[in-house]
Amino acid sequence: MAAEDWMQEYEIRDSKPETVRNQLPWYAHFHYKQEADPFERFSQAHLKRGSQRRKGARTQATQEQQGTQIEPILRNAIPPVLAQDIFRNIQ
C-alpha cells in the first residue's frame, strides 16, 4: 500500500462452525487514492490470507534490505464485477 493510499478492509470467515475454529480469516482489501472516493473507484482490490493481512510491499522491501528470504504474499485480484456484487452494499 502506497503511503498516499487509503484502504477499506473486509474480514471473510467460513460460516461453518467446524471449520472456523482452526482457520484464520481471509481479508479483502480495497485500495483508493482518497478516503472520500466512492466504492467503485478503487484502484485495486485483492484477497489476502489472514496470516499475511498486514504484510505488503514494505515488508518485502525490508526483507530484501536485510538480505533475508522475501516472503511471497498472496494477493488474489478481485474483479470489479465480483467486487460490486459481493462487497458494495456491506456496511
TrEMBL record:
Residues covered by region (Disordered): 46-72
Organism domain of life: Bacteria
UniProt name for this protein: Uncharacterized protein
Lineage of producing organism: Bacteria, Pseudomonadati, Pseudomonadota, Gammaproteobacteria, Enterobacterales
Composition bias, Basic residues: 46-57
Composition bias, Polar residues: 59-69
